[in-house]
Design a protein that fits this description.
UbiX-like, 6 strands, alpha/beta, flavin prenyltransferase activity, Flavin_trans-like
Length: 189
Amino acid sequence: MKKRRIIVGITGASGSIYALTFLKILKSLDIETHVVITHSGVNVLQYECDITINDIKKYASYIYDVDNVGAAIASGSFLSEAMVILPCSMKTIASIASGVSDNLLTRAADVTIKEDRKLVIVPRETPFSAIHLENMLKLTRLGIKIIPACPGFYHKPQTVDDIVNIMVGKICDQLQIEHNLFTRWTGDM
């Protein structure tokens, strides 16, 4: 059976814990990950999670320099199942929506779109401006899944991990990755 391969982009938006948790889940499932982190993403990981890029290397199969637009994931001939950008800054969303491939992360997203592969974007901003919403609508019309970092509470979270896990679980659902990160709604109240 062919090994699953997912590209993971991490930007400087708040919510690095989502990316870290997602990478841990993928590693535990032996899913090959190709990670690219923006410069501000590295800073936010350090600030919010107190981890460095070397810590991320424990969970990623491959890590690429965001300035290396010649890396494997910049080409349509590099086969991947999907790309997930989490957290995703509004700058990155605007770049992708405008077709601006000014770094490896936005180039990999552009390739994912042109190759008609699954792209999941997890914006972390509030409130959304009309510009943010228009950019996300443009991407949604292209078939890109937008999953704002807006956790539900029907599973009665007790910890921050519970809140993070419902969001990571929703991302996994989009990629058809089986998990038990949260209790699913059964309709019983």
